[in-house]
């Protein structure tokens, strides 16, 4: 069996995240963020943060990525990375981990500053769609 961490070109994903970050709308925080993920069918989806004068209405890069995934026909995320304005790897916050779980599940591989880890290690005992069918 092939190691799933070898199925993605992490450098290419980071480059896509950096490109998305370059289009972020972050006039209030000055903290642009870009995200990129590989979909099980081979597509790459991206997102960037979009702030709003009413701070609570801002959208994170992960929200944009998931919206792009849905708008592009859906699919299942297999590999994910996120970068800041310097192009450095970020980890998704708790809210975004939950969002990514919905579309990548516990096996989603996430690039962190400390290496590649499955989402299950970052969001143990996650709540997902399977809990709603009980």
From TrEMBL:
SUPFAM superfamilies: Cytidine deaminase-like. InterPro entries: APOBEC/CMP_deaminase_Zn-bd (IPR016192), CMP_dCMP_dom (IPR002125), Cyt/Deoxycyt_deaminase (IPR050202), Cytidine_deaminase-like (IPR016193). Residues 8-130 form the CMP/dCMP-type deaminase domain. PROSITE patterns: CYT_DCMP_DEAMINASES_1, CYT_DCMP_DEAMINASES_2. One of its GO terms (biological process) is nucleobase-containing small molecule metabolic process. GO terms for cellular component: cytosol. Keywords: Hydrolase, Metal-binding, Zinc. One of its GO terms (molecular function) is identical protein binding. It comes from the Bacteria. Transmembrane segments: none annotated. Belongs to the cytidine and deoxycytidylate deaminase family. This is Cytidine deaminase. The lineage of its organism: Bacteria, Bacillati, Actinomycetota, Actinomycetes, Kitasatosporales.
């Amino acid at each position: 069996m092939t190691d799933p961490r070898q199925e993605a070109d992490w450098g290419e994903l980071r480059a896509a995240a950096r490109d998305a970050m370059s289009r972020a709308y972050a006039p209030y925080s000055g903290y642009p963020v870009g995200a990129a993920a590989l979909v099980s069918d081979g597509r790459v989806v991206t997102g960037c943060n979009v702030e709003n004068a009413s701070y609570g209405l801002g959208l994170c890069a992960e929200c944009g990525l998931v919206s792009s995934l849905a708008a592009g026909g859906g699919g299942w995320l297999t590999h994910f990375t996120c970068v800041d304005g310097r192009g450095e790897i970020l980890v998704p916050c708790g809210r975004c981990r939950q969002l990514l779980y919905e579309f990548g599940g516990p096996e989603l591989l996430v690039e962190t500053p400390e290496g590649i880890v499955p989402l299950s290690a970052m969001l143990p005992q996650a709540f997902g769609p399977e809990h709603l069918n009980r």
